[in-house]
Amino acid sequence: VDISWSSDNKNVISDYGYVTRPESDGNNVTVNLVATISYGTREITKEFTLIVLKMGKFTLSNVDEYFAEGYPKAKIENQRVIVTIKLIKPAEVYMTGINWGEYESTVKGVLHGHTNFRIDGDEKNKDTSPADYIGYTNITNAEEVEIETNMYYYTGEDITINFIIRDDDYMSKDVTKLFMAADTAPAEYNYGPNFGYAYLNDNADKIYLWSMDLLDTDSAPEPSAFSLSRNYNYDESCGTVTGVKLHNNEEKKISWIELSVTDIKSADKEHLSVSYEKQEGKLMDIAGNECQWINNNVWETSVDIKSVLLYQGDSRESELYITLADNVNYWWHHLENEDFVITNNGKPVSNKSIHSMTYGRLEGTIGFTCDKIDSTDMDLEIRFNPSSNIKDWAFEDLQEIKYDGEIIILPTFIEDDITAQYDGTEHKLIITFAENYYLWDYYVPSCGFSIELDGKEYIIRSSINYCEDNVITISLGEDIPDLTGKKITLTYSPTCEDMYDITFREIPSFGPIDVETEPPPHVVG
Fold it and tell me: pTM for the complete prediction?
């Protein structure tokens, strides 16, 4: 039996079932659909009448008296969230935004750049998540100001934007909240499944593209929709896609595309990329949303031990932190302490329990407690000995690996080891901890930092844009003046999530510490 559909208003409901809702200032629209059902030479039709509701509007609450009537506003253009502000007189506006739910913040929370509560139906739960968008603008006149945020609309997700006003001694008593329900966004922004990682197997005859969106496994595109090229240069073909299969693992809520490929040369593997040109009605998620595009680097699968860190611990136990470069497929299988074999001076070391795991595409770290290891009398041998069911991202078995590098001894926290420097050319702070004092770089909050200049406190609410080993870099916002040559101090006192080292020990409050603000001397050569 075949069923096809025809719509009398394809701009609202297409023949493929895609719905574009009328704008909020428009009207509900009636659409007539005709289903044609055919079996062999027999054919019947059935008519349906549907009413497509217009989109809802964003809602405002606790609007500050400084806002002009009808402001602030928000809209979505090209999937980006746009905020429009108009004040009745000049002032500073501080903003935070979350694009995956409804949240509330206190005045202090907005200043520091984080939320305070998550709204889930009628429930209000404490949640101090860092904001996705941390904005600031200094309004100097009564003109309308349009601000393009760094937030995108994602299918089915609510958007919350919070505002507070500062004007000399004036500070908002309440947070102005703008809430956009998920149905406020136009339907055309349902961009379908997203594929983040792509991997080539050892035989160079399969490429796997991974997603966290479950797929309609009957919507596989034609192989010709995919192209392989060298660094996205489509004039340099690097092979051919000959087959496409779509797979789901509903238990783990993950999916992948399996591409059969040929003619990939060894010299092209390092620079290989895969692209997908949209085919109508193909490569859809289970809700029927089509994938719009794919442009991904293709990685080879190779796993190695990148580093081993030792924390001495108390008199009874030590802790080991082992980082695997390129990582196992952590969407499919998490590492266990039994996957590592450790000896010290030829004697087995017991891996007692896992207490931390962090994963990324490029690497993953597993931390576990073990027998006490004395670094003054240590000859450690560490092997990654994976079980047979552990696969890499291309579904291939992992091999045993022996670590031949240095064992790094982790120091304890000492405030006197911390230094800070201001880079005036890029308006950023560089904070350096003791050598080998590794930070947990997957999440380092900036909302706990502040500086003092001429007796005035400036809260650092911009984002950590770089964290590597013992160094973090913070880009400063427009609300903080140029600090070159000024006498300033830095303080860390977390108000949101805490900062941790790689052992998941909380870094205590510290400061004030002096910040070096003088530019380096110019060297004439």
Answer: 0.68
